[in-house]
Amino acid sequence: MTDGRSARRLGVAGAMAALVFAIVPAAATASDGETALRSWLGDLDAAHQWSARFSLIESERGGRKITLRNLTIASFPAGLTISAPEVVLEGGVRLDDGALRAGSVRVDQLTLTTDGLEVEIEGLVADGGRLPALTGYVWNPDKPFTTIGRTYGLLAGMAADSLRIARVGLTESADGIESLIGYGDIAVERWHQGEIASMSVGPTRMETPNPGGLIRFSVGGLEVFDIDLDAFAHSLDPARYEGGRGDGVWRRAVGRTRYDGVAIDAPDIAVTVADVTVEAMRLRQSDRSFAAFLDAAAARPELLDDEPEVIGRTYDGLSTVAIGRLVVEDIDVEARGIDGLRLARFALADASSERLGEMVFEDFAAAVPGEGFFEVDRFALGRLVLPSGDEVRRAIATEALNGLTGQLGFLEIAGLDFQSYNQPRTKLDRFRLDMRDYVGRIPSFVNLEMEGLQLGANLVADRQVRAYLDELGYDRIDADLAMRVTWDAEQRTVAVDGFRFAMRDFGDIRGEARFEGLAPDSLDDLSTIMRQKDAVKFAGGRMEFRDDSIVARGLAMQARRMQVETEVFREQIASALPFMISFLGTPEFQREIVPVLQAFIRTPGALTIASEPAEPVSLSDLEGAIFLAPSSLPDMLAVTVTGDNGNDTGGGDLRPAITPDE
């Protein structure tokens, strides 16, 4: 856990990084620059918690060029010190609101220090702009996160036509350990009215020791466009929350951010990322500000042990951010214990605490020596509606987070291929699940498509089923599945159509069904459907089975058990069929279906069972008939059976054509 001092340093580091720009006087056209500068520094020196000192001011060209020597600005008791051996300004004028305008400013060396943190800035040049008075700004290291929010407000009052910094170096010292961060070639363009048109940063390096060795982090370059500083202040500064409550209004904060060439090198692991792009970042005020809690936790880390409070405040923080699009390209990981991990692309679209438009992983592969490998061409989910803030807070208060559910729009998997140690290879060509038009927690429309599922038969969980598959000759399963369900909540009808289960060397099952009486007002989730057995009724349907050798396999299996020839056993079953189904007690129905079933056994092809009851049958009546009076089912459901005989696929090798991959 981060201690209080480190947390304060983290907050101070962020605020200091922002204040780097706040000390750069910006543009002006007035002549008496020395008077304006002395006035600005004098007001700062007289302000509460601030002092400003210098050894000499020199003016040239009639006051147009001013050189300020040995400048030191300090904030107390915060312990912040800003110093520069020389500051050169061109022009300067004091505005009515206390701001300072200067034509240009040059600082060859600038140093900021506080509480174990030192920032060194080299080669700073700014042209044109405006620097607000700092007299109302309070630097409070005991409230680092609140200070960050207020610093953004200060920066929003600045302006600069352009700003260049050759290098920024940060050194943090904690418990005798130094962490170093270096930024190069910083450029800012068109900083006016709280907005920055663009900012770029050259190569960035960070080094920090840990018990296992040195950790290095680097970025080849950074570009940021269309920054709204006031949007950050509005979201982060608790003083902007009127009455302590947030307004929840989204504001564009950053148009586009791009990181180029990210690398992390740590003991036992190295990570490289080719490119990271973030577009359309928005910010808003949460229902309540989380800055005060983070300030308190920085001083008292034990507050982080209050799990419900931490979860709630974390949600508050997450609810302030929305991203239009995030794309991470070409992630490679090298680590001890793995042969490699690669992800070609990770992307988010329309992401916030309220919804997720899409999350995508593309071309992911990982391999562990002696354990196996995993690959997937595409994994995606989206159109996800998340629980509301009120639902989250109620769940936190009642410790019922497990009850939180969202509304998933789709889930897609393509090109899945994996194999674990000493197990057959598993593949999936494509899986797609679509859901929409939710009524409460239940989707009114569900469409499922699965193609090319291939797995070893020994992976089937049920031991008895595995034994049957082995006896039937299935080493491997190759199957497709599809189904569509549509629920009309107003009419209380459910239609299941497009159902298909096809397994190679087994058969193809297709069907459809209709139900009535499913009421939304008594449906909490899918598990409660069976509690409505009296109300939900079966209205009709049909199922078609087309054989692909399962009949021959089943007959051959039974023939082996009875130690007779398969064809002999086949004819025995066909001949005995009238006696085998006589328990139904429905002579007319039996006379209709016996010839169809006998033909199907002798020459397997297709078999179709249809049901069109005169009146819908409740699930409870159907359940009772199955267990207590099965002979009533044909009349109750108005069942008809028809056949379309094909060619016999039995005999010969009953092992599947698909063999396990090596």
SSE layout:
Layout (H helix, E strand, L loop, with lengths): L3 H19 L10 H14 L3 E4 L2 E5 L4 E11 L4 E11 L2 E2 L5 E2 L2 E11 L2 E14 L13 H13 L2 E16 L2 E16 L2 E7 L2 E7 L2 E16 H8 L14 E16 L2 E15 L7 H9 L7 H12 L2 E15 L4 E12 L3 E14 L3 E14 L3 H9 L12 E11 L5 E14 L2 E15 L6 H10 L3 E13 L4 E11 L3 E10 L20 E11 L2 H13 L3 H15 L6 H16 L3 E6 L5 E2 H10 L4 H5 L1 E6 L18
Antiparallel strand pairs: 1-3, 2-3, 3-4, 4-7, 5-6, 7-8, 8-9, 9-10, 10-11, 10-12, 11-13, 12-13, 13-14, 14-15, 15-16, 16-17, 17-18, 18-19, 19-20, 20-21, 21-22, 22-23, 23-24, 24-25, 25-26, 26-27, 26-28, 27-29
Helix pairs in contact: 1-3, 1-5, 3-4, 3-5, 6-7, 9-10, 10-11
Mean pLDDT: 85
Which oligomerization state do the chains in this entry correspond to?
single chain
Tally the beta strands: 29
User: What's the helical proportion of residues?
Assistant: 10-25%
Percent of residues in beta strands: over 45%
| Spans where pLDDT lies below 50 across 5 or more residues | 1-5, 7-13, 15-31, 647-662
Rg, nearest Å: 36 Å
Question: What overall form do the CA principal axes indicate?
Answer: elongated
